[in-house]
């Protein structure tokens, strides 16, 4: 409550003045108590807040540790890192709030109490002292006797001086009281207003921070909903599998064999058989350790034509038999133990014991089968070595193929990282990257790969070099590009614009901004000069059909010995087609050729030869580079904004994908498909990429397009679909692929047939064709194409 003391009453020193002073003094005393209490509460709140920030920071560090632990799961790592960064910002905002609170409440109110109220107290002491002196002077003046003139005069002078001093100090005291009453309102409200503004800034910062995070949270929520659906489906599948295995286990005869599930045949891992066996010691005593069976019980496996065992999973396998081709296996009935068999090599023998008679028979059969397989594989390798050493086969191999054969057997990580620049992350330079963007052809560290995922698959498709399986054509695509090539394109203007490339230790926000500017906004791509039209370029033109004429006479050179191993799987079903093809090949070569299928009825379509691609539009640059099989030029055209499905109206509305087919490059087709090319766009004659690949006899491309969903039922202007074209051209490989794809499509449309063995055969055959198209294209070439036309 505001109390004002009148200066006039001060001079009178009336009872009203004294009562007003008493009221003011009591009010100031209570105000001091309230302010002291508020300052103490503020100090406690600040200390508690700092403890909260410390605990919150520890919690945030725990989230970051969990994110580092989840480095193999990009979604979890990215989300937890983003959330921990947000929490760190909130901790910073809390710290700022507590600092503002300390300045506005604690410091400001303490200053008011220590300075202003202390001045009031000092003024009060002086006033009380002079007031007492005045009372004494009044009493002394009243008591002096009239006849004592000297004492009367002295008492009068003292009273006059005392009254003068009292009025001066009383007026100062009243001024101090009125100033304090006025100032305390401003000080209290000023400190509280500053405190509330600190809260306003805190909540505004938090709102802005979470507004930026909200879209990501919504997207993550949608992903979690889908994950919940997938988890429920997986749970049902696992419950069904559990029930199936439980029923199967219930039907097994456990009395004869209780370890049926401990071994399997896994050709994909090279493991023919595996399981526990007892092993007799190989010392001079030939003993079995009965007290500690685990000392002689080992996990045996047959793999890579060797018999090995290990005690623990992490232990390096101990090789028992180096080469199964040099050993024999036999039953052992002349010892006291049951279910024993012996593996004998030229240098040593190994006595082993199974858990049952069935398992012993299975192990003996597995060893015998592995011995036979080892002989066959050795023979195949010798035959391949002879073919490689022959002049005819050796002349077909280009330099790039030789390099890839040297790399054969290495992992995808090793093959991709040996490309120049790929040993470090393309965007931050961190060594030993384990992730890749398959449509860009670059390697990435795990943090940058998470940022690439957030860009969307239309900008970057991320795949693990160690966890995912790699198709051969995709692996070749990665080997054709690399970090050095892509950075020369996407960072051409980096030094000009003065942007600093992130380092491995840079903040994630800095990396994210750089990657978005690099690939989405393409700020560092060198601007392409103005495009020049075909008429203005003044270049010569060549008939488009000349390219196809290279293939027109090649059908006569078809030989049955060039057929790949993959086509042998189903060749028996197409024996009639093959026989008719052999009988009528010369006739078909003269009547139905690739050239005749491409040439129009009227004048031949003509197209411009390739002028300087730097003067062309990005779409035309991509179109030309696709024919020339130059993936770096194709990547540069896409960086300049080329539409991947660009249509050349001057050449029958052909697309870059069709040009890649004409150029004969499997890798160029794969690159365009990975960057969003439509496999079913057709030209003016109604022919899509599958039509063109069939006409030109490019079996590897036909296999690729069928895997990527090409419509083989589409017909051209002559009413021919790819299958009829392949039959007329007597191309047995392509006929086989098209018929298999059609059969597989029909199986998928039939209820209850999808996933049956027929579908597995389809997958195996297409996998074999893909391997040959990438690693041994000469086996699939129906025409004698030059080395430059091989993918």
From TrEMBL:
It holds the Pfam family PH. Signal peptide: none annotated. GO terms for molecular function: GTPase activator activity; zinc ion binding. Residues 270-372 form the PH domain. SUPFAM superfamilies: Ankyrin repeat, ArfGap/RecO-like zinc finger, BAR/IMD domain-like, PH domain-like. It is a peripheral membrane protein. It is found in: Cell membrane; Endosome membrane. Transmembrane segments: none annotated. ANK repeats lie at residues 652-684, 685-717. Residues 375-389, 546-557 have a biased composition (Basic and acidic residues). GAP activity stimulated by phosphatidylinositol 4,5-bisphosphate (PIP2) and phosphatidic acid. The keyword Amino-acid biosynthesis does not apply. Residues 565-581 have a biased composition (Polar residues). GTPase-activating protein for the ADP ribosylation factor family. The BAR domain mediates homodimerization, it can neither bind membrane nor impart curvature, but instead requires the neighboring PH domain to achieve these functions. This is Arf-GAP with coiled-coil, ANK repeat and PH domain-containing protein. It comes from Falco tinnunculus.
């Amino acid at each position: 409550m505001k109390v004002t003391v009148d200066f006039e009453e001060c001079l009178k020193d009336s009872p009203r003045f004294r009562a007003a002073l008493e009221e003011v003094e009591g009010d100031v005393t209570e105000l001091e108590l309230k302010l002291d209490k508020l300052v103490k509460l503020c100090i406690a709140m600040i200390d508690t807040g700092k403890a909260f920030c410390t605990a919150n920071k520890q919690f945030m560090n725990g989230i970051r540790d969990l994110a580092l632990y989840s480095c193999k799961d990009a979604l979890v790592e990215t989300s937890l890192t983003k959330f921990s960064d947000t929490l760190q910002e909130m901790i910073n905002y809390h710290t700022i709030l507590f600092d503002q609170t300390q300045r506005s409440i604690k410091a400001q109110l303490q200053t008011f109490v220590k300075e202003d109220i202390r001045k009031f107290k000092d003024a009060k002491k002086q006033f009380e002292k002079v007031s007492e002196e005045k009372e004494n002077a009044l009493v002394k003046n009243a008591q002096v006797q009239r006849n004592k003139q000297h004492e009367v005069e002295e008492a009068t002078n003292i009273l006059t001086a005392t009254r003068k001093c009292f009025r001066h100090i009383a007026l100062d005291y009243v001024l101090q009281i009125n100033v304090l009453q006025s100032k305390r309102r401003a000080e209290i409200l000023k400190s509280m207003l500053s405190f509330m503004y600190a809260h306003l800034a805190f909540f505004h910062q938090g709102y802005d921070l979470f507004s930026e995070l909200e879209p990501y949270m919504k997207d993550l929520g949608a992903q979690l909903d889908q994950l919940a659906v997938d988890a429920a489906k997986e749970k049902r599948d696992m419950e069904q599998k559990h029930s199936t295995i439980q029923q199967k286990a219930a039907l097994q005869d456990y009395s004869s064999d209780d370890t049926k599930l401990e071994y399997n045949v896994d050709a994909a891992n090279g493991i023919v058989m595996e399981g526990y066996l007892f092993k007799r010691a190989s010392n001079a005593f030939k003993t079995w350790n009965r007290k500690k069976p685990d000392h002689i019980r080992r996990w045996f496996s047959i793999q890579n034509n060797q018999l090995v065992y290990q005690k623990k999973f992490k232990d390096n396998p101990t090789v028992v038999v180096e080469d199964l081709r040099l050993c024999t296996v036999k039953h052992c009935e002349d010892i006291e133990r049951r279910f024993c068999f012996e593996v004998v090599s030229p240098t040593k023998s190994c006595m082993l014991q199974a858990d049952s008679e069935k398992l012993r028979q299975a192990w003996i059969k597995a060893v015998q089968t592995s011995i036979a397989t080892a002989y066959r594989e050795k023979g195949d390798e010798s035959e391949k070595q002879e073919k490689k050493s022959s002049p005819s086969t050796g002349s077909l191999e280009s330099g790039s193929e030789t390099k890839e054969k040297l790399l054969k057997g290495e992992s995808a990580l090793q093959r991709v990282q040996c490309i120049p620049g790929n040993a470090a992350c393309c965007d931050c330079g961190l060594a030993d990257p384990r992730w890749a963007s398959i449509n860009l052809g670059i390697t990435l560290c795990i943090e940058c790969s998470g940022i690439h995922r957030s860009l969307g698959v239309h900008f970057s498709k991320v795949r693990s070099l160690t966890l995912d399986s790699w198709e051969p054509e995709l692996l070749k695509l990665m080997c054709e590009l690399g970090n050095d090539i892509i950075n020369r394109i996407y960072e051409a203007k980096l030094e000009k614009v003065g942007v600093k490339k992130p380092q491995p230790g840079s903040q994630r926000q800095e990396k994210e901004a750089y990657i978005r500017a690099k690939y989405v906004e393409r700020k560092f791509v060198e601007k392409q000069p103005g495009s020049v039209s075909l008429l203005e370029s003044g270049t010569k033109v060549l008939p488009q059909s000349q390219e196809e004429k290279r293939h027109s006479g090649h059908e006569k050179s078809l030989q049955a010995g060039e057929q790949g191993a993959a086509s042998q799987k189903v060749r028996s079903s197409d024996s009639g087609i093959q026989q008719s093809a052999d009988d009528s090949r010369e006739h078909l070569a003269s009547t139905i050729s690739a050239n005749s299928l491409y040439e129009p009825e009227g004048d031949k379509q003509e197209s411009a030869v390739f002028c300087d691609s730097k003067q062309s539009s990005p779409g035309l640059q991509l179109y030309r580079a696709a024919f020339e099989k130059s993936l770096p030029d194709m990547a540069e055209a896409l960086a300049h904004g080329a539409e991947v499905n660009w249509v050349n109206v001057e050449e029958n509305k052909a697309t870059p994908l069709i040009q890649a087919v004409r150029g004969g490059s499997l890798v160029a087709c794969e690159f365009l498909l990975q960057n969003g090319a439509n496999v079913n766009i057709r030209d003016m004659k109604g022919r899509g990429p599958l039509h063109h690949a069939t006409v030109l006899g490019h079996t590897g491309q036909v296999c690729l397009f069928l895997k990527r969903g090409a419509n083989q039922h589409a017909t051209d202007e002559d009413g021919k679909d790819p299958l009829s074209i392949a039959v007329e051209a007597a191309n047995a490989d392509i006929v086989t692929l098209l018929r298999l794809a059609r059969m597989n499509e029909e199986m998928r449309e039939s209820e209850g047939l999808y996933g049956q063995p027929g579908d597995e055969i389809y997958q195996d055959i297409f996998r074999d064709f893909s391997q040959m198209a990438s690693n041994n294209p000469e086996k699939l070439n129906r025409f004698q194409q030059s080395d430059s036309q091989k993918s």
